[in-house]
Design goal:
Number of strands: 6
Order of helices and strands: HHEHHHEEEHEHEH
Number of helices: 8
Helix content: 25-40%
Distance between the termini: 37 Å
CATH architecture of one domain: 3-Layer(aba) Sandwich
CATH topology of one domain: NADH Oxidase
Strand content: 5-15%
Structural class: alpha+beta
Largest sheet: 4 strands, antiparallel
Length: 231
């Protein structure tokens, strides 16, 4: 976290070690890969409530992510209030109507067609929780002095990945929705002008009849996403 004044580097002994022998490392890595392949972005949600403590634990896991200068330039607003969710859905669908009626080019719409997205966003009210992820573009000390944050998009992206993995680990599903621009969100949720909403995650349990787009399960093979330079 940001600290005003002179702060000096002071190393401490590595507090935790999770290293295992090579054979166990490979097995654990492959087990994790198999588990993450079971993660799905879901649009249909069950009405079953999710305890707030589960959401809080997942957000706490996101907060352990590394960040530029350890400034942790993020905030997570967890919403279960039906009226607030309805207002967010209304704004999202208004933006989507503009997007699908000419705001997006033909190429973009063609790319989205296999995913099955559209104007209607019932998941924003059906999901028990919405988590709005804010990026803190700059920080402010308790004295009101402004300070710079570093690598904000990268840091928030890493924390969001942690959060999505934690939600999956808790047996929940989510859907990545990017508000554009939804400028009312900081005011609605009591966040400062320094923060920008970058993602909304509807979170809950999948409905009994939940579906996913077939194309969404087609992932690039390893040889297309990995290069190796051996010594």
């Amino acid at each position: 976290m940001y600290s005003k004044g002179q702060v000096h580097y002071q190393p401490v002994t590595l507090p935790d070690r999770v290293q295992v022998p090579e054979d166990a490392a490979l097995r654990q890595a492959e087990d994790f890969l198999a588990y993450m392949r079971k993660r799905h972005s879901v649009r249909e949600y069950d009405s079953r409530p999710v305890p707030e403590a589960v959401i809080a634990a997942c957000i706490a896991a996101a907060g352990t992510a590394p960040s530029g200068a350890n400034h942790q330039p993020w905030h997570f607003a967890a919403i279960s209030d039906p009226a607030m969710k309805a207002k967010i859905r209304e704004a999202a669908e208004e933006e989507e109507r503009a997007f699908y009626s000419g705001g997006a080019g033909d190429e973009w719409l063609a790319a989205l067609e296999p995913i099955g997205t559209g104007v209607n966003k019932p998941h924003l009210t059906d999901a028990p929780w919405l988590i709005v992820i804010f990026a803190q573009r700059w920080g402010t000390t308790h004295e009101g002095e402004r300070f710079k944050n570093y690598y904000v998009p990268e840091s928030v992206g890493i924390a969001t990945g942690f959060l999505i993995a934690a939600l999956h680990h808790a047996g929940l599903v989510c859907l990545e929705h990017t508000p554009n621009p939804m400028k009312f969100l900081p005011e609605m949720l009591g966040r400062p002008a320094s923060e920008k909403a970058v993602m909304i995650l509807p979170v809950g349990y999948p409905a009994a009849d939940a579906t996913v787009p077939q194309v969404a399960k087609i992932k690039k093979p390893l040889d297309e996403i990995m290069s190796v330079f051996r010594g």
